[in-house]
Structures are given as C-alpha cells and as structure tokens.
Amino acid sequence: MELEEKPKYGEPRKYDPTFKGPIQNRGCTDIVCCILFIIAILAYIAVGILAWSQGDPRKVIYPTDSRGQFCGQAGTPLENKRMLFYFNIMKCASPMVLLEFQCPTTQMCVEKCPEKFMTLLKAYTSRTDFDYYKQFCKEGVTSSMGVPEILKLGLCPAMLTPSKPFTRRCFPALGQTGGVITVGNNSHFDDGSGNMRDAKDLVDGVKNATVVIEARQVAMKIFEDYTQSWYWILIGLVIAMLTSLLFIVLLRFLAGIMVWIMIALVILVIAYGIFHCYMEYAALKGEPGSDVTLQQLGFQTDFTVYLQIRQTWLAFMIILAIMEVIIILLLIFLRKRICIAVALIKEASRAIGHVMSSLFYPLFTFLLLAMVIAYWAVTAVFLSTSNEPIYKVFNETACDHSRATCDPANYTTSLMKKECPQSECLFAFYGGETVYHKYLIGLQFYNVFLFFWCANFVLALGQMTLAGAFASYYWAFVKPDDMPAFPVFSSLGRSLRYHTGSLAFGSLILSIIQIIRVLLEYLDHKLKGAENKCTKFLLCCLKCCFWCLEKCIKFLNRNAYIMVAIYGKNFCTSARDAFFLLMRNLIRVAVLDKVTDFLLFLGKLLIVGLVGIFAFFFFSGRVKAFENTAPNLHYYWVPILTVVVGSYLIAHGFFSVYAMCVDTLFLCFCK
C-alpha cells in the first residue's frame, strides 16, 4: 500500500462546529522573548536616566562663547547678553572651521551687535567712543592700558564693523552698491593695524561662520509659520478626521455605491490637479526667469522660488498624469475583481458596525506611538548634548601646540602659553574622554534600536487587538449574542496577558531588519564621495534586498498576529500556519485581498486630495474670500504639507481598521 503524499503546504483545518472564535483558555507564548523585551525596556529607561543626568539641551538652544558659557541663559550673568560677537570674523574663513565648526577667534556674549565702524586706535582717543568700545571687550580693560598692551593680551578686537544679528550671532552688515561689496556704506575698512582691507574679504568669513547655522534660519522661519498657523492646521486636521469618519459611516450603509463614487472622485481630483498644473505652467510662459531649470537653480531655502519656474509645474503635471494613467489601467484590468472586493468591504462594514469601538482604537495606538517617539527624541537630544566642553589652543603664528587641548583656568601660567605667547585657549567643541563618552555612540545606537522595537511592538499590539475583535465577530453563530460585551477590550487584554512575548518576537525581527537598513543608509551617505562603482552597486543591491525583506516580514507578521489572536499559539507556529494558509489560497490573496487594499488606498488618496486642495487655496491666498483670513507666512507650503501629511495619517488610522478587518475576515474565510 502506497503512503499518501502530504500536501506541500500542510493540511487544511477540519470543520469544527463547536469552535466559536478566539480561544479563551490559552497559555502564555514566547516567554523568553517576553523576558528579553522587559529587560530591554528596563535598560532603555536606565539609558534615558543616564542621558538626562549627563545631557544639557542648552548646548543646542544657546550660542556658546570662548569660555563655554551660554549666551542669554536665564539666571546667569549673561542673561541679558543674548548675542555672540566674533573678535575677528575674517578668521572664520579658515578651512579648520569646516572641520571643527568653530572660528579660531575670541567669541564673547554681548547685549547687542556693533552699530558703527570703529578701530580700537581711534576709539582710544575719545572717552565716549572708548566706553562704547569696551562693551565688546573682555573684563579688565581700563583707560590706563595702552592700545598695544590691550591687543597683546587679546582683551579687545582690533576693530568693530556694523553688524546685524543672525540666529543670535553678530555678522557684518554687508551691502552692495553698484556691484561692489560694502560694509557700513564703505567698500574698504581699516583692520585695526593700519591696513586698509577690501569689504569683500569679510564675505568668506561670513560664509564659513554660517555653514552650520544656515539651516537654523529656515528652521526658525518654519517655527514662526507654525506659531502663526497652528490653529488653522488643527482645523484642517479636524476636517480630515470628520471626512474620514463620514466616509467610514457611509461605507457601513452604502459600501457598493461609495466605492464607485470614491473611484470617480479620485480620478476627478487628480484630473483637476493636472489641469491646475497646466494652467500654472501656461501662466508662467514669457515671465522673466521662469525658464530656468531646476538644475541651474540648485537648492534654495525659500521653496516658493521653485513655484516661479515652469519646469516645477511641468514635473508636477507629468507625475499626476502618470498616476492617473496607472489608476485608470488598474481599474480597467481589475473591474471584475472590484465587484468581489466590494462584497468583502460590505462584510467588513457589517463587522465594524458590531465593533464600533474599533474605529477609535487607532487613537490609542497614536497615543502610545507619540509617547515612544517623544521618549526617543528627548533621550537622543540629551545623549547628543551630554559631552563636556573641549578647549583648544588657537594661534596666529607658528606654534607646536596648535589645536592641542588646553585648560582655560590656568592657561596664562602654562608652558604652552610661555612657548606660544600670542596663542589663546578657546572653546572648540563638545566631547569627552571618559568611559561614558567613549560608549556614547553605542548608547545612541541602542536608543535608535529600542525606538524601532517599541514602535513596532505598539503597531503589532494594535494589529493583534483588532484581529481578535473581528475574529470574535466572524466566528459568532448568533451576532452579537455570541460576541464578548467589549470585543476590543477583551482582545487587548488577551494580547497583553498571553502574547506579549509573541508581539515582542515579531517586532524584534522587523526591528533588526530596519536597523540594518539604517546602517546601510549611513554607509551609503559615507561612501557618496567614493568612486568604487562595484561597492556602490553592492550597496544598492543590499538596500533593495533588505527593503523587499522588510515588506515581506511586515506582511507575514501581520497574518501571524491574526493567527495568534485566534488560536493562541506561539509566533513561529502561527507564522508557519499563516504562511501555509496563504500559499494554499495564493490566487485569492494576490487578487481579492490586494484589490481591497487598493480600493482602501484610493479612499485615503481621496481624503488627502480633497483636504490638500482646500489647504492649498486657503494658505496660498489664491481665493479672495480667504485673503484677509489666512495668516501671513514665510512659506505657505509648511502648513499645507503638515495638513496633507496629517490628513494621510488620520485617514490611514481609520482605514487601517478596515484593512485589518478585511484581512482578518479573509484569513478566517480561508481557514
């Protein structure tokens, strides 16, 4: 008698008339992973406490003078001295600035920037001018001291130039008259040592001094835009939430009609986008400067400049046209499957009707994710600011101790000062040589890794909770009598009580892949200047492979959590059962389930498109009715982009409940 060959993907589960949904009497799964996760969380808390005790966010907020003191810090003698003044801004043109991010010149905190041009030699002859000049000098300067002595001791700058504050730093107020660079309306200035210098010599110093803080100007403008428009952004997000909720409610009662209306509206919204881009493209024809290419323009901090170029609108039009064609072609080829998918959405609507609390569960997930992100961000800031101030020797003449570490407290009596009389011990950067500082990069890495693990755990908890709630609906013979009184809370309790280990196991696997992708991106960034094409190709292949692997693991984890929620088995067993079940129903999975996902994606796209168009016309002031209502902004794209991204996240939160419901019902049906 020949042995029967076992099916390649396992035996289908036999029908059990007594099975009524998620098993209540279950045991704890993946206990080892649960213990490992708890230990990792405790260690994460310890890292946070260590970072908070060592870090100092003031290093990011306030400018730092040559002594390592913070300008404008409340409760200190420098509270009213908010500006950072450079003794000789031209020294900032040194290439060392780009390596150490610090100008090799004395820097001190002042109440306001210099407003007039003046040399120390000239100021010394007038008591009034010298009193004004002394506010930009170190302590200890008196009128009894001679100019050579003051300059030798480095107590005062040789000259003052009219300056303006920029990100709380004093930079020369450079202008341009007839194509000539000027400072204080003069094209030349006395450098304090009797030499006349060209005003353009200040330009290189200003450029290098702002290499680290250019982005801060944009950040400050963006922050100001948020302070001016935050309530309008909230209104936009509330509109997105109400639109999403209305859409879900209408799907509950009019699923078939709403799906086809949604498809038609998506096509119309994208078509309007194409039309609008064409009108903007045509309106810029013949305008001066509108034919400049994006490559010629380069990167600009004022993003509104890009909207004055025809090529920008042409690119937008092409992108939207491609999207429109792809969506129409997909709808043509999937027209028969869409009808079946609509039936599945109708069933999902009935399930959500019995488990209405599931619609609000994404708010709980969002709250947990916000806590995880906040903890990671705060810990990262404290870790990055937990270094100690490092002082180095800066000098103008040749010196063996140049750039050597020094101690400003006793530098005047040190051997280095004796051997290099003209040198100074100035603050250079933040660092450290202790054991803590040596392993600081490891703590940062641990912070990032635990962020991924905790975030994936929160998302996994949401998926398993919703899967358990909807499975209790599917397997209930009499609805809602055979369902728990509170399906979502019952499922959440089971997930946390019995399956924390399984959730930690699945999220750990995904986090390892994500951290590898981060490391690959870091390597790619470091090797950008390399010309080894073989290395670049290998790195590109690795990035592509791990991206695909992450997508596969996410899909497998999602279905594994559904099986854990129903049968209460460990993660590996559930993942295997889910994989075999999907392989036995491969055609259904590839067509029916994915078509449903595509339709739900169109719903998200529709909500984002409608809210985005409304935000664009409101914040850009294109509609006369909103001209006086809309806030005055530096970049009107800031609130628009925020509203669009926020609308997508809100719509994704609501539709993710639908997607999880569809996946759970589909898997239960296949089972």
Topology:
Elements (H helix, E strand, L loop, with lengths): L30 H24 L3 H4 L21 E4 L9 H5 L6 E4 L7 E2 H4 L3 H8 L12 H6 L6 E2 L2 E4 L2 E4 L1 E4 L2 E4 L4 E3 L5 E3 L2 H9 L4 H70 L10 H4 L12 H24 L1 H20 L6 H24 L3 E7 L20 H5 L4 E8 L3 H4 L1 H35 L12 H12 L1 H27 L6 H35 L3 H14 L1 H34 L17 H34 L1
Antiparallel strand pairs: 1-2, 3-4, 5-6, 7-8, 9-10, 11-12
Helix pairs in contact: 1-12, 1-15, 1-17, 8-10, 8-11, 8-20, 8-21, 11-20, 11-21, 12-15, 15-16, 15-17, 15-18, 15-21, 17-18, 18-19, 20-21
Helix percent reads 55-70%
Task: Summarize the main sheet.
Answer: 2 strands, antiparallel
Strand segment tally: 12
Distance between the termini: 31 Å
Strand content: 5-15%
Strand order of the largest sheet: 1-2
Query: Radius of gyration, Cα only, in angstroms?
Result: 32 Å
Oligomer: single chain
Identify the overall geometry. globular
Low-confidence stretches: 1-5, 94-101, 178-184, 203-213
Count of alpha/pi helices: 21
Give the structural class: mainly alpha
Mean of residue pLDDT? 78
Question: In summary, what is this structure?
Answer:
This is Choline transporter-like protein. With 671 residues, the chain is mostly helical.
Describe, in plain words, how this protein is organized in 3D.
It is built from 21 helices and 12 strands. By secondary structure, the protein is mostly helical. Among the domains are: 83-215, no CATH class; 390-431, no CATH class. The strands form 6 sheets. A two-stranded antiparallel sheet has the order 1-2. Strand 9 (188-190) and strand 10 (196-198) form a beta hairpin. Helix 8 packs across helix 20 (586-619). The chain is globular.
